[in-house]
Amino acid sequence: MGGVTAAPTVVVPGLDELAALVGDGNVVVLSGAGLSTDSGIPDYRGATGSLRRHTPMTWQTFTRDPRGRHRYWARSFVGWRQIAGARPNAGHRAVAELQHAGLVGGIVTQNVDGLHQAGGATDVLELHGGLDRTVCLQCGDVAPRAALDVRLREANPGFRPEPADGEVNPDGDVELPESALDGFVMVDCLVCGGGPLKPDVVFFGETVPADRVQSAFDLVRCARSLVVLGSSLTVMSGYRFVLRAAKDGIPVAIVNAGPTRGDEKADVRVDAPLGRVLPELAGRLSR
C-alpha cells in the first residue's frame, strides 16, 4: 500500500545558499513592494508597476496644493477599501514563521500596507509609515484611518465613483475621472478643529524621520545577515542599508524577481518570485 507522496523540493538557483545564511539566525529582513504583489497591491517599478501608469503623490504637492490634496483624498477614499481588504500572502506568513522560529530578528519594511503584522510578524519597523493611520499637519495628532473612513462615509453618502482602472496604487489611491472629484467632501482634524489630515506615510520627496532611519541602521549593525525581499533598491531609502551592511562585512542576500540596484553588493542572489521561494525556505528551516 503506497504512502503519501512528499511534495517535491523547489529547485531555485541560490536557494540552498539562502537557506544556509538564514539558518545561521539573527537575520534582519528588508522588505519592499514585491512582497505584497501577491496580495493584490502592485509595486512601483516592476514589469507592471504603477509608475508606468500613475504619478504618485509627492510631499510638495500634498502640502502646497489644496486641489492636489483634495484629489488624493478622493482617490484614497475609494482605494482604502482595497488596501484594508488586502490579506497577507504566503510570503508574509513565511517571514513570520521564520521570525517565530528565532531566525529572523528584525523586520524593516518599505511597505505601508501592514501585511507583515497581519501575517503574524511582530516588531516590524515601518520605514515609510502606515496607511492605517492619519496625522494632522497642524497639531500632529495621530488617529486610526478607520475612524477617518467612518467620517468620510458620513460626509460623502452618495460618492460612489468607478475607478478608471480598478487597481489600487501602492500609496493607497486609485485613478478617478476628474469629473468625480468635485463631488467629494474632505474633513479636517477633530482635535485642533481645522488642520489638514495626511496619511501617516512618507510620500515621494518627503524625508524619512531620522530616528526611524537610525533604528533601522541599529538593527542592521547588530545582524548576522541582511536579507532583502522584493525591493529593487532603486531609492536610497532602502539601498543605504545594503551599503552599510556591505561596508561592515555583514552578508547580504537579495531575493527579487528581476534585477536590483544592490545586486553587485549581494553575497547571495535569488532571482525568483517570493511566493515560490519564501514558503520553501520556511519549510526547510522549520523541519
UniProtKB/TrEMBL annotation:
Gene3D superfamilies: SIR2/SIRT2 'Small Domain (3.30.1600.10), TPP-binding domain (3.40.50.1220). One of its GO terms (molecular function) is NAD+ binding. The keyword Nucleotide-binding does not apply. The keyword Metal-binding applies. Keywords: Metal-binding, NAD, Transferase, Zinc. One of its GO terms (cellular component) is mitochondrion. Residues 8-287 form the Deacetylase sirtuin-type domain. NCBIfam families: PRK05333.1. This is Unannotated protein. It comes from freshwater metagenome. The lineage of its organism: unclassified sequences, metagenomes, ecological metagenomes.
